[in-house]
Amino acid sequence: MKYMIRRWIILGITMLAVLPLWAQKGMHVEALFDGRFKQDKRAVEVLIKGKELKKYHLTLFRSLTVTDAPTLSKEIEALVNQDAETAVDKEVGKVGTRLYYGFFCFPPKNESYRYLFYRNTSVVPNSNKKPEVTVVYMEGQVTLEELKQMFK
Q1: Which member of 24, 46, 60, 137 has the lowest number of beta carbons within 10 Å of its beta carbon?
Q2: Cα three-residue angle 145-44-91, rounded to 5 degrees
């Protein structure tokens, strides 16, 4: 009996540790955070959770930045555009028909606000910089106004 209780406790703790990784479940950009970029030198992937985020009222921060990869750039843009369809609030900027930047707010899930940021410098004509696409997913108890203040 003790052994069975110990197994359930360990299983419960394991599930709690893994839950934040499923946070963006149901979103199309989830496909970007499946680990396929870990060995890609053009990509930088960041995952932050836990104590580091408490002061920002966030529970999860994930980002992916891909440099100099036009094919991936279009794939990422397509995924973001699919998620944008379900956003309850959004702010976007386009260059022609291409999405240059986007800030999207989604319906709360498990009492947490969910946000998606996107920026694609490859759509800017005559830029001196290397083309770069960035996607950031965040969730927590922070409101949209608080987030905007943090990023000013």
Answers
A1: 46
A2: 30
